[in-house]
Amino acid sequence: MNSSRQSPSLGEAAGSFLASLPPKKGETSQQAVYGFVRWYGWEHSFAGLTAHEVANYAEQLSSSHTNYLNNLELIRAFLVYAKKQGWSKTNLAAHLKPRKTKARLTSLARRNLPPAISLTQQGHAELKAELADLKSRRPQAIEEMRRAAVDKDFRENAPLEAAREERGHLEGRIRELEEALKSATIIDKTPKVTLKVSMGDSIVLRDQVSGEELRYTIVNPREVDPTKGKISGNSPIGKAVTGRAQGEIVEITAPAGKLRYQLVQIER
């Protein structure tokens, strides 16, 4: 394609951008850039792309997987390239951004949270009982350390060393159990009926063309947060999946037309 052309289609613009990159970089950028193009349509004129459309794109982008921010950066690079080519009068890349403050807070919160575990009701009760037992042994462990410390020759005080080690194991296990119980979810063994998507559910969609999987949580419009994959039940995707069962094929209306996805997972 001639890069001097003033109004290429999105498909042509994407092809030109990817061809301008080193082969390896072009290959890793292709999925993100083509996903952006498919949303609006291959034949959509680049000059007709508005800042509002670009700003809204981040809301439907699958933001729950690790490539979310990387995908945004790749699409921004494409939009910056298009501006340099003169295909857009404004820098559309400036309008494609996640909610940075919430993203940063979410990242910090995740860093400080213990890994979640699933427990049966019996397993949960057993951990609580063990924690209570260990805490009841604290006074004895402290007393043993006090007695061992009576011998002032710390260099060869084997009883003191043993008491310290025992206390360390005790406190370590107590902390481990407290963190596990804090993040634990109890498995519900009640037989489940066939789930249909409703408000608050998390879903996984598989693109019937590319095979890419997208994860979302359907929420009230006031709770929408792209950095957490939370989309409105009133959004095109939200409306298309609500009331649908796992395994069904759903059609989502995008600027490019109808996109087909399989509803491969529902989590409640």
Secondary structure elements and pairings:
Layout: H1 10-20, H2 23-40, H3 51-60, H4 68-84, H5 100-112, E1 117-119, H6 121-136, H7 138-148, H8 158-183, E2 184-186, E3 202-207, E4 213-219, E5 230-232, H9 236-241, E6 249-254, E7 257-267
Parallel strand pairs: 1-2, 4-5
Antiparallel strand pairs: 3-4, 3-7, 6-7
Helix pairs in contact: 1-2, 2-4, 6-8, 7-8
Features:
3 domains; alpha/beta; Chitinase A, domain 3; two-stranded parallel ribbon; about 270 residues; Helix Hairpins
Kindly describe this structure.
The chain has nine helices and seven strands, in the order αααααβαααββββαββ. The chain has helices at residues 10-20, 23-40, 51-60, 68-84, 100-112, 121-136, 138-148, 158-183, 236-241, and strands at residues 117-119, 184-186, 202-207, 213-219, 230-232, 249-254, 257-267. Residues 101-111 have low confidence and may be disordered. Helix 2 packs across helix 4 and helix 7 (138-148) runs antiparallel to helix 8. Strand 6 (249-254) and strand 7 form a beta hairpin. It is α/β, with parallel strands linked by helices and 268 residues long. It has three domains: 10-97; 117-186, Orthogonal Bundle (Helix Hairpins); 202-267, Transcription elongation factor, GreA/GreB, C-terminal domain (Chitinase A, domain 3, Roll). A five-stranded mixed sheet has the order 5-4-3-7-6.
